[in-house]
Amino acid sequence: MQKYLVIGDPIGHSRSPGMQNAAFRACGLGEPYGIRRITPEELPEFFEFARKNLCGVNLTVPHKIHAAELADELTPRAAQCGSVNTLIIKDNVILGDSTDGVGLERALTYNFKTSLAGKKILFCGAGGAARATAVHLAQCGTTEVSFINRTLSKAEELAALCQKIVPELICRCTTPDNENSARELLANADFLIQATSLGLKPEDPPPLPLEWFSANMKLKIFDTIYHQTPLQKYAGTMNIACAGGKEMLIQQGAESFTCWTGIPAPLDAMRDGFDHGSPGK
Ligand code: ATR
């Protein structure tokens, strides 16, 4: 009987079943994790099903904001960002949590072997992926969390949220059209977090003009998209440190696993399951 599910719409591509079942198996807990497509309209009804039948859920696009409204209770970190990617269900109570922020923090540390203390973070994008992670990075001892986004108001909203929680944080916002200020932010940053959806489709333009990146920049690029995008390829040719989003997916899933089971996540088993696991049923 499946007691854990990943839901989203679309969802067929998800690596979560392979990764989570590898973790459960490694801990002698069988393969209790499945996959289900749930449309936005079906989400309230799904919550009632989950309350009675499940122990845990991972949620992906497009459910993370609506889930924060439907959960009975929120963890402080989910309440701060208003985004939920994990449900923890116990005694008929649905607790909404957000493990994306800590997932990104650990992925940055793992990929680039450096702490975030004193670092300047620049997000490209201010949609769901940035919302779920920026507030957490703001609380990792970083000195700046800034945003370049096509829609300036969304960048400003996220910056205000970060600054409300960490008043001394420097938060600057601009759009890619404002070339001078965008390039200045880029030159100043230690990490660029690519958090737009650009790169998901092969015909997408790069999120920022590639000629803005030069070989001697200090910044490291983390692209939240896990397959190789033109930006990641270009960074490789320019010798700029760059990582795709795979480790973030693994780390957010690992944190969900620990929230459900109380067991430290078997990360290597999860990495192997991510790469080689079979899609869920
Ligand atoms: P996700 O949940 O994947 O983050 P989202 O919430 O729709 O999806 O956010 C998509 C992000 O990609 C946003 O930052 C969006 O910019 P806007 O806030 O201006 O919409 C960005 N994005 C998507 N398509 C884009 C495009 N063609 N050009 C520039 N930015 C784009």
What is the terminal-to-terminal distance? 12 Å
Tell me the fraction of residues in β-strands, as a range.
Answer: 15-25%
* Overall form: globular
State the oligomer: single chain
Mean pLDDT: 96
CATH superfamily of the largest domain: NAD(P)-binding Rossmann-like Domain
Order of helices and strands: EHEHEHEHEEHEHEHEHEEHEHH
Small molecules held by this entry: 2'-monophosphoadenosine-5'-diphosphate
Strand order of the largest sheet: 2-1-3-5-6-4
CATH architecture tag of the largest domain:
3-Layer(aba) Sandwich
- Number of E-state strands: 12
CATH topology value of the largest domain: Rossmann fold
| Overall structural domain count | 2
| Count of helical regions | 11
Helix/strand-derived category reads alpha/beta
Helix content percent band: 40-55%
User: Largest sheet, described in full?
Assistant: 6 strands, mixed
Radius of gyration: 19 Å
Q: Segments where pLDDT lies below 50 for 5+ residues?
A: none
CATH level 1 name of the largest domain: Alpha Beta
